[in-house]
């Protein structure tokens, strides 16, 4: 049945960030109709990511206010704009911050996931026309976030940022694959291409670091070393395959790289930096094995941060240093594989969800993430929504 709201603006509730670092306000907003190459999505549930905290706290661009944050989500297509034939009303979909147009040379290549048609940027508007689809109750513009803006009942997303999802996966698990878990698992699977029997070192055991461990476990790594200053992270890490733990605070006589080089008889095959500190990237690179060692950077550092890497390590030791945006994944082709892995009980998603609550409690969820008391908190808009039943999704 055609949507009764198609072709009309929708009034709905959203969590609006009006000032940096201040609690979000639950407000009624207006969501415009989708334009050409856009879809309007009813968000079923959304999860919180540290990138949301970063953008929420910035007082200067790319911090923009008032703004609707959020980018880990899953929902139902409510209506489609002109020229959209890839999606239809009622499709179970996932919005993703990284574009995958499918037509440019990068999207057609298996060597890159960096779309050339809609390159990644920290814009606060829609990607094609740099305008907003949100207004508040006074008619004033509200900014977008990471091309998704999921802290609202309805959002408008470009088709290059949307992929269909197997409706057998519950929405409170599917939303995790919009960013963090996919980034970590993909970094091990796609970017590093971790091989069976290898040794892995992970700097930072937050959600992304643990997702790297999960990806490395799936790929068959036999030694997965977690580095973190919080010893409680090791117990959590065991669920995702972490076999060894290093707390840098326990041994001040040796650097972490020296300890790992000794533990691995010359360095780890693969090292992952998941915190966002140039000093940790340098440590990871220093304990990366000569000849074939690869260091993958996932953490987002401060603007204008620089790396000090030994040219000797690069030239004489053949080490590789690379970044990994969204884990090297292409949303429209690779997300389906991760969903299948979950449905086949190969990928552990359940263990990442430490809290679930109503959307109205979003500020409590922010506090939990700020205090380091959760991996992922899933927010539900309407658990009783009939759309859930019609798509075969389970209740949490």
Automatic annotation (TrEMBL):
Pfam families: ADH_N (PF08240), ADH_zinc_N (PF00107). GO terms for biological process: formaldehyde catabolic process. The keyword Zinc applies. One of its GO terms (cellular component) is cytosol. Residues 37-165 form the Alcohol dehydrogenase-like N-terminal domain. It comes from the Eukaryota. Coiled coil: none annotated. Keywords: Metal-binding, NAD, Oxidoreductase, Zinc. The keyword Transcription regulation does not apply. InterPro entries: ADH-like_C, ADH-like_N, ADH_Zn_CS, GroES-like_sf, NAD(P)-bd_dom_sf. One of its GO terms (molecular function) is S-(hydroxymethyl)glutathione dehydrogenase [NAD(P)+] activity. Belongs to the zinc-containing alcohol dehydrogenase family. Class-III subfamily. This is Alcohol dehydrogenase-like 7. It comes from Spinacia oleracea. The lineage of its organism: Eukaryota, Viridiplantae, Streptophyta, Embryophyta, Tracheophyta.
């Amino acid at each position: 049945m055609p949507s009764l709201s198609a072709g009309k603006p929708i009034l709905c509730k959203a969590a609006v960030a009006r000032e940096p670092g201040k609690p979000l306000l639950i407000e009624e907003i207006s969501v415009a109709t989708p334009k050409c190459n856009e879809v309007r999505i009813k968000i079923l549930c959304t999860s919180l990511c540290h990138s949301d905290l970063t953008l929420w706290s910035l007082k200067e661009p790319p911090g923009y206010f008032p703004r609707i944050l959020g980018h880990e989500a899953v929902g139902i297509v409510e209506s489609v704009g002109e020229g959209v034939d890839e999606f239809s009303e009622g499709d179970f979909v996932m919005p993703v911050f990284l574009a995958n147009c499918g037509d440019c040379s990068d999207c057609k290549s298996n060597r890159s996931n960096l779309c050339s048609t809609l390159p990644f940027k920290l814009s606060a508007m829609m990607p094609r026309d740099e305008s907003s689809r949100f207004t508040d109750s006074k008619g004033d513009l509200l900014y977008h976030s990471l091309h998704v803006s999921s802290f609202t009942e309805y959002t408008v997303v470009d088709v290059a940022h949307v992929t269909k999802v197997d409706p057998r996966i519950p929405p409170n698990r599917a939303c995790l694959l919009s960013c963090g878990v996919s980034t970590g698992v993909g970094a091990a699977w796609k970017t590093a291409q971790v091989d069976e029997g290898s040794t892995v070192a992970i700097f930072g055991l937050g959600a992304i670091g643990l997702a790297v461990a999960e990806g490395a476990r799936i790929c068959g790594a036999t030694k997965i070393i977690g580095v973190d200053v919080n010893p409680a992270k090791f117990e959590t890490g065991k669920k995702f395959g972490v076999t060894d733990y290093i707390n840098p605070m326990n041994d001040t006589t040796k650097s972490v790289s020296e300890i790992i080089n000794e533990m691995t008889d010359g360095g780890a095959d693969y090292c992952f930096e998941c915190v966002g500190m140039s000093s940790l990237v340098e440590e990871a690179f220093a304990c990366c094995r000569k000849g074939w060692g690869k260091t993958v950077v996932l953490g987002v550092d401060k603007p204008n941060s620089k790396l000090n890497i030994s040219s000797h390590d690069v030239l004489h030791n053949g080490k590789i240093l690379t970044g990994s945006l969204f884990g090297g994944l292409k949303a429209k082709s690779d997300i389906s594989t991760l969903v299948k892995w979950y449905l086949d009980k190969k990928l552990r998603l359940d263990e990442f969800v430490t809290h679930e609550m109503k959307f109205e409690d979003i500020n409590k969820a922010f506090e939990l993430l700020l205090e380091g008391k959760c991996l992922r908190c899933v927010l539900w808009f309407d658990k009783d929504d009939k759309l859930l039943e019609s798509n075969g999704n389970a209740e949490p």
